[in-house]
Amino acid sequence: DIATGATGRNHGLLHSGARYAVTDNESARECISENRILRRIARHCIEPTNGLFITLPEDDLAWQQTFIDACQQAGIEATPLSPQEALRREPAVN
């Protein structure tokens, strides 16, 4: 298993880097670079989940575009989804 023997602070997740895209674009680029390397050399150890970043009703919708732009700048795929599509992909998101 990937991450076996890692510290207790490791969740065993392979980050895309999207969580850092707006505030630390350099770290986001490093994450997606390592992500691609690991997917190439250890594909059999990785379960792709295509995670979702959810905009809540109280969130500023302008931030959504800021997030998408920062992801694109870092080389991270980010595609806006309708609420219906997000629910189809992940029914427990509601």
TrEMBL record:
Annotated SUPFAM superfamilies: FAD/NAD(P)-binding domain
Keyword Oxidoreductase among UniProt keywords: yes
Gene Ontology MF term list: oxidoreductase activity
Annotated FAD dependent oxidoreductase domain residues: 2-92
Keywords: Oxidoreductase
Family annotation (Gene3D superfamilies): D-Amino Acid Oxidase, subunit A, domain 2 (3.30.9.10), FAD/NAD(P)-binding domain (3.50.50.60)
Species, as recorded: Acinetobacter baumannii
Lineage, broadest ranks: Bacteria, Pseudomonadati, Pseudomonadota, Gammaproteobacteria, Moraxellales
Protein name in UniProt: FAD-dependent oxidoreductase
